[in-house]
Amino acid sequence: MARISGVDLPRDKRIEIALTYIYGVGRNNAKEIIQKAAINPDIRVKDLSTDDLAKLRTALSDYKVEGALRAEVSMSIKRLMDIGCYHGLRHRRGLPVRGQRTHTNARTRRGRRRTVGGAKVVKGKSK
Q: Per-residue pLDDT tens for 4-23?
């Protein structure tokens, strides 16, 4: 099994797709990395030689991926929260950050619906 940047790449996928399993590497970056390493993009991970893996590792060293990238993203979010800007406040409250509506939807950020029960008003009677 090929292991690059602490990630086990899936054996049966093309290297172009398998590289996207690394945090911070998308399709475009994967294509660039393969080009720099001078490897056939159609080759499967299981067919890579140790020489090819070494080329991929050196080509990938130019990119910020996995732990370093995660740390940078979390520090950016923490900075926004510390300075108290609008983006930071939305992060702090666990609400959508990029202007989406919250009256309806936004369930992935806001969590499960919690029904707020009100006292029933019986016609003609008051409490």
A: 888 899 999 999 999 999 99
Q: Which domains does the chain have, with CATH numbers?
A: 3-60 (1.10.8.50), 66-100 (4.10.910.10)
Contact 19, 38 (CB under 8 A): no
**Token digits of residue 27:** 């399709």
Element of type H or E holding 7: strand 7-8
Confidence of residue 118 (pLDDT cuts 50, 70, 90): confident
Burial annotation 53-85 (CB, 10 A radius, 16+ → b, else e): bebbeebbeebebbeeeeeeeeeeeeebeeeee
Radius of gyration of the chain, Cα coordinates, nearest whole angstrom: 24
CA distance 68 to 61: 12
pTM: 0.75
Tell me how far apart the alpha carbons of residues 45 and 15 are, in angstroms, rounded to a whole number: 5
Find out whether 27 and 16 touch, Cβ atoms under 8 Å: yes
